[in-house]
Automatic annotation (TrEMBL):
Any Pfam family: PNP_UDP_1
Annotated ranges, domain Nucleoside phosphorylase: 1-225
Native organism taxonomy: Bacteria, Bacillati, Actinomycetota, Actinomycetes, Propionibacteriales
GO annotation (BP), single: L-methionine salvage from S-adenosylmethionine
Metabolic or biological pathway: Amino-acid biosynthesis; L-methionine biosynthesis via salvage pathway; S-methyl-5-thio-alpha-D-ribose 1-phosphate from S-methyl-5'-thioadenosine (hydrolase route): step 1/2
Enzyme Commission (EC) number: 3.2.2.9
Keyword Hydrolase: yes
Keywords recorded for this protein, A-Z: Amino-acid biosynthesis, Glycosidase, Hydrolase, Methionine biosynthesis
Protein name: adenosylhomocysteine nucleosidase
Enzyme class label: hydrolase
Family annotation (InterPro entries): MTA_SAH_Nsdase (IPR010049), Nucleoside_phosphorylase_d (IPR000845), Nucleoside_phosphorylase_sf (IPR035994)
The species this protein was found in: Cutibacterium porci
GO MF annotation: an example: methylthioadenosine nucleosidase activity
Positions of transmembrane segments: none
Length: 227
């Protein structure tokens, strides 16, 4: 799964035996290096992500890996580094008026975690691809909300409040949906910007590089996860 055209277009081009499926988003079934896959371009934001996760499971997906870009939050991370999520929080969930901590959706756990086996497989694959290229690969908290973060003050708040490594608009929604659907998931985010005042400039300039790296990861995972 990816949110935007640039995050899935190269993977789509490499699919064989492509079948277009009905759903809430662009949804394809095909083969990647001989492995049966479902590919979704979910669209931006939490609701679109949850709808796409449900559609993918209905189409036969037995696990979901989200690849795409995000803003760096943790100190020391830079553009081009990679965060593989090991904890997911919706930073714009605010029920504090009724005593819940910021970021907690009422009736849900305080955070979500990925399937440990799928996480380990994905993390190892990302390290194999990106560390030789000089990019740092870390496991960390990914925070999500229906906001494009482009203010240094907001980045500092996310770091202090959630110990976040990266911020984006979909990962925690996938985590919540996958939890209810009973499907393993993992999220890989290539850092495209620093979430500050330059984010709106850095973000589009980095998409092409991220698209190629996402395709490389998809091919590795297609071979590793072949069933």
């Amino acid at each position: 799964m990816g949110a935007m055209e640039d995050e899935v277009r190269l993977i789509r081009a490499d699919l064989d035996e492509v079948e277009e499926l009905d759903g809430s988003c662009e949804l394809l079934r095909g083969r990647l290096d001989g492995t049966a896959v479902v590919l979704a371009q979910c669209g931006i934001g939490k609701v679109n992500t949850a709808l796409a996760a449900s559609a993918m499971v209905q189409a036969g997906a037995t696990s979901i890996v989200f690849t795409g870009v995000a803003g760096a939050v943790a100190a020391g991370l830079k553009i081009g580094d990679v965060v593989v999520g090991n904890r997911f929080i919706q930073h714009d969930a605010d029920d504090t008026a009724f005593g819940h901590p910021i970021g907690v959706v009422p009736g849900e756990p305080p955070f979500w975690e990925p399937d440990p086996d799928l996480f380990a497989t994905v993390f190892d694959a990302v390290r194999t691809l990106d560390e030789p290229r000089g990019h740092r690969v870390v496991a960390g908290t990914i925070v999500s909300g229906d906001q494009f973060i482009a203010q240094a003050e907001k980045v500092a708040w996310l770091r202090a409040t959630f110990e976040a490594s990266a911020v984006e608009m979909e990962g925690a929604a996938l985590a919540q949906a996958a939890h209810h659907l009973g499907v393993p998931f993992a999220v890989v985010r290539i850092l495209s910007d620093s979430g500050d005042g330059d984010a709106a400039v850095d973000f589009p300039a980095f998409l092409n590089d991220a698209a190629h790296r996402g395709r490389d990861l998809a091919h590795v995972l297609a071979r590793v996860l072949r069933v």
